[in-house]
Amino acid sequence: MLRKPQAVALLLLLASAALLCMHPVAANQLWHDVNRYDAHGNECKLHEKNDVVCSMVCVADINNCPSSLQPSCPDSQSFCADGQCHDQCTDEIQAQNPCHCKRSGKKLPAEAADLVPCMAIPNVTIYEFHPWNSKADIRNACGSEAGIADQSKTVGVWGSTWIGGDIDAVWAECPAAPAPNYRYNESYWLATFAVNGALAAFLALWSLYKFWAERGIRSISNMHARSTAERSSSLSTDDAAIMPKAISKEASSSDIAKGSPASEKAPALSIKTAGDQAGSLGQGITLCGYNNNIFGTFCVWAIVVVTVLWICYMGVWTGDYYGSLPGWRHGIPYSLAYESSFLELASFLFVWAITFIILIVLYIVKPHLRNYFRIRTLPSKGQLVCVIRPVHNIKLLEDKVNWIQHRINQLTDRLTVMLCRDMDYTTCPVNVTSGNLTYFTYQCTRYIFDKSTEQFAPFEFDIGTNHRSLVAQARGLSSEEAFSRQELVGPNFIEVKVLNVFMAFAREFFGFFYIYQFIFLWAFYFYEYYQVGLVDTGIILLSATIKVALRMQSERRLKRMAEQEEEVLVLRDSKWTKMTTRHLVAGDVVEVTSGAHMSCDCILLSGNAIMNESSLTGEPLPIRKFPLHIDDGDYDAMGSGKISTLYAGTIVSQVQPVAKSSDSLESDRVLALVWHTGTMSEKGQLVRKILFPNPITFIFNEQMRIVIFILVLYAGFVMGMAAYLYQGNSTAIVFFGVFALSQLCSPILPAAMVIGQSVAAVRLRKKQVYCVDPQRIMIAGKVQMFCFDKTGTLTKEGLEFYGGQGVDPSTGKFKPFETDLPSTDTLFQQAVASCHAVTELNGQLIGNPVDIEQFRASKAAIDPAPEYLDAVTPPEGSSFGKLHVVRRFEFVHARASMSVTVLDEATSTLHVFVKGSFERIKSLSRSESVPGNYDEACANLAREGCYVLAFAHKTIDATDPTQIKGLTQDELETGCDLLGLLVFKNMLKDDTAQAIAELKGGSTRTVMITGDTALTGIYIARQCGMLPADNRVLLGECKTQMDEIQWIDVDTMEPVSDIRPHLAELGPDGFSTTELAVNGAAFERLCLTGEIDSLIFNIRVFARMKPAHKVECIEQHMKYGVTAMCGDGGNDCGALRAAHVGIALSDAEASIVSPFSSSDRSIMSCVQLLIESRAGLATSFANFAALICYGQVMSGMVKMASFYFAISLTQNLWMLIDGAVATGMMLTISLSGPARRLAPSRPTSRILGPQMLASVGGTVFINWVFGALVYVWLFQQDWFRCNEHATAEVDPNMWWLLGDNFEASVLSFVSAFQFINNGFLVNYGYRFRAAWYKNYALLVVWAFLISFVSYILLADPNRVGCAFRLNCGTASVLEKEFGTKVTWSIEPYNSLLGHNVIPRASRYALWGYCIGNMAASNIWQLFFINGPVRRLLSKKKPLHRLKVKL
Question: Residue 1290 pLDDT > 60, yes or no?
Answer without folding.
Answer: no
